[in-house]
C-alpha cells in the first residue's frame, strides 16, 4: 500500500478538524495509507505575509523537520501549498540546510485536488452528494499554483451533485489572510459582492479548496441568515 503524508494546516487543526478527517477518508478509500503530520502545525504563511520572517522561519523549520521529502506531501489548502512550494525559497534563502530540504521537497508537495487528479489520475472517488453546489476558486490555488480544472473535475464526478455557476466566481472573496484584518472595509465590500453572486446561483452549498475563504464566506452568509452552507472540497468528496 502506497503511503502519503498529510499536512492539514493550522485552520484545519484549530477550527475545521473534519476537513483533515475527510481527506483521510478519501485517501484510504483510494487504497492509500495516510501519515498525518500533527507535529507540524502551521506553514508560516501569515507571519511571512506580515514580514515576520523569523517567526515564519521557525514554523517552516518545524514543518520541514517533520516531513519526509521522499514521500508525497498532500495539503488540503491552495495557500499553504503555495507557501511551501513557491515561497519557501524566498523565506529560507539565508538558511542553506532548510532551503535545500525545501528544494528537495518541492516536487513532492501537492494540493489535495491536484494530487487526486494529476498524480492518482482520479476524478471519481466514489462520492455521492445530492445537493446543489457552487465552487469558489481561491486566489493562491488559481493564481500561484495554476490549478483551475482539478476541483471542478472532481465535483463533476460526484453522483447526485448539481454544480451551480455564479458570475465572476474567480474574483477574490476578500479574506487574504491579514488583508481582511488590515483593510476590513475593503474586505467586507469584496465579501458582499461574492456572497450576493453565490446567493443568486441558488446553490445550497458553497465549496472551495481553502479554509480561509470558507471561514470568511461562511461568516458573511451567517450574518445574512443565509441557509447556504460551506464545505471544503474534501468534505464533499468524502460523502457517500
Would you give an account of this structure?
The protein has 240 residues and is of the alpha/beta class. The chain folds into 2 domains: 3-119; 132-238, Rossmann fold, CATH 3.40.50. The protein is 51% helix and 12% strand. It contains 13 helices and 8 strands. A 4-stranded parallel sheet has the order 2-1-3-4, sandwiched between helices. A 4-stranded parallel sheet has the order 6-5-7-8, sandwiched between helices. Strand 7, helix 12 (211-223) and strand 8 form a beta-alpha-beta unit. Helix 5 (78-91) runs antiparallel to helix 6, helix 7 (112-119) crosses helix 9 (149-156) and helix 11 (184-200) packs across helix 12 (211-223). It is globular and about 50 Å long.
Summarize the SSE layout with pairings.
Elements: E1 3-6, H1 10-14, H2 17-29, E2 33-36, H3 45-49, H4 53-66, E3 73-75, H5 78-91, H6 96-105, E4 109-111, H7 112-119, E5 132-135, H8 139-144, H9 149-156, E6 162-164, H10 179-182, H11 184-200, E7 205-208, H12 211-223, E8 229-232, H13 233-238
Amino acid at each position: 500500500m502506497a503511503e502519503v503524508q498529510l499536512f492539514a494546516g493550522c485552520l484545519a487543526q484549530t477550527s475545521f478538524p473534519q476537513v483533515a478527517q475527510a481527506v483521510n477518508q478519501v485517501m484510504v478509500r483510494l487504497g492509500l495509507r495516510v501519515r498525518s503530520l500533527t507535529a507540524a502545525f502551521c506553514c508560516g504563511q501569515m507571519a511571512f505575509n506580515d514580514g515576520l520572517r523569523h517567526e515564519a522561519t521557525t514554523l517552516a523549520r518545524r514543518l520541514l523537520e517533520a516531513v519526509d521529502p521522499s514521500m508525497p506531501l498532500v495539503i488540503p489548502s491552495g495557500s499553504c501549498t503555495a507557501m511551501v512550494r513557491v515561497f519557501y525559497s524566498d523565506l529560507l534563502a539565508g538558511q542553506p540546510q532548510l532551503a535545500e530540504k525545501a528544494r528537495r521537497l518541492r516536487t513532492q508537495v501537492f494540493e489535495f485536488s491536484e494530487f487526486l487528479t494529476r498524480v492518482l489520475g482520479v476524478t471519481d472517488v466514489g462520492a455521492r452528494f445530492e445537493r446543489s453546489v457552487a465552487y469558489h476558486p481561491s486566489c493562491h490555488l488559481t493564481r500561484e499554483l495554476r490549478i483551475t480544472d482539478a476541483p471542478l473535475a472532481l465535483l463533476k464526478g460526484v453522483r447526485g451533485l448539481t454544480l451551480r455557476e455564479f458570475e465572476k466566481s474567480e474574483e477574490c472573496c476578500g479574506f487574504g489572510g491579514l488583508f481582511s484584518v488590515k483593510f476590513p472595509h475593503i474586505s467586507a465590500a469584496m465579501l458582499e459582492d461574492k456572497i450576493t453572486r453565490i446567493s443568486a446561483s441558488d446553490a445550497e452549498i458553497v465549496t472551495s479548496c481553502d479554509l480561509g475563504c470558507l471561514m470568511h464566506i461562511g461568516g458573511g452568509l451567517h450574518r445574512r441568515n443565509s441557509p447556504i452552507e460551506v464545505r471544503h472540497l474534501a468534505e464533499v468528496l468524502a460523502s457517500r
